[in-house]
Amino acid sequence: MQKSNNYIITSAVACILACVGEFVSIFVLGEYYPGYNQMRDTMSSLGASVSPVSDIISTWWIIMGVLMIFFGTGFNKAFHEKGKFARIAALLIIFYGLGEGIGSGAFKADHIADEPTILAIIHDIVGGIGVTAILIFPMIMQKVIDKNERPGFYRMSKIFFITGILTIFLFLFRYSSDENNFLAVYKGFWQRMFMLNTYIYLTTIAIITIKKAKYKIDIAK
């Protein structure tokens, strides 16, 4: 029991490190890419082969993915009594780690003559799978931690679901044919708002998971 709860706590801490590390890496490494604009440029362009920080950020994304997968396994242990909904939630976390983390790091978003390469297409596909998983996640979490247990968190899940849908919708304007479209120009901003929304939510869940495991440790003494 002690060993299992320690595993859960460690995995939740890994999630928090991944969330904080993602923000730090994007904004710090962006400073080493001449001409890179956090508000206008996507995060994927930091990992493209032409980027001077390509290898560093790609390595970090793989590490971030591993940390998220680790958290997914710990989350499942922490909420195993919730049955299938806990397993689904854990899988969504793992898919996010595989897609937005490992997949984004392994497949660079390279373009030749403004056309995406095969690697870039794969990058977008696996990243899309990860994004879809984390968009669905708050709705599943309402089944794992229901309204009677934590009414505040239940409402928070709804808010983060709506905000996630809204920010990713605005980010998709990057495909607009009008290059002067305000929403398309500031695609980097919308992407970072989506990222902020996601990581605040995941960090909150990680903290809840830590408290749950610590409570089990305390009552076992």
Write up what this structure looks like.
- By secondary structure, the chain is mainly α.
- The chain has one domain (2-216).
- The chain contains eight helices and two strands.
- The chain has helices at residues 2-30, 44-47, 54-78, 84-106, 118-144, 151-171, 182-185, 187-220, and strands at 111-112, 115-116.
- The chain has a two-stranded antiparallel ribbon with strand order 1-2.
- A hairpin with a 2-residue loop joins strand 1 and strand 2.
- Helix 1 (2-30) runs antiparallel to helix 3, helix 3 packs antiparallel against helix 4 and helix 6 packs antiparallel against helix 8.
- The longest helix has 34 residues, at 187-220.
- It is globular.
- The model has no long low-confidence stretch (mean pLDDT 93).
Gap from first CA to last CA: 11 Å
The helix-strand sequence is HHHHEEHHHH
Largest sheet: 2 strands, antiparallel
**Number of self-contained structural domains:** 1
Quickly give the structural class. Answer: mainly alpha
Task: List the total number of helices.
Answer: 8
Radius of gyration: 18 Å
- The best one-word shape is globular
Number of strands: 2
Residue share in helices?
Answer: over 70%
Strand order, main sheet: write it out: 1-2
Averaged pLDDT, please? 93
How large is the share of residues in beta strands?
Answer: under 5%
Uncertain regions: pLDDT < 50 for 5+ in a row?
A: none
Question: What kind of oligomer do you see?
Answer: single chain
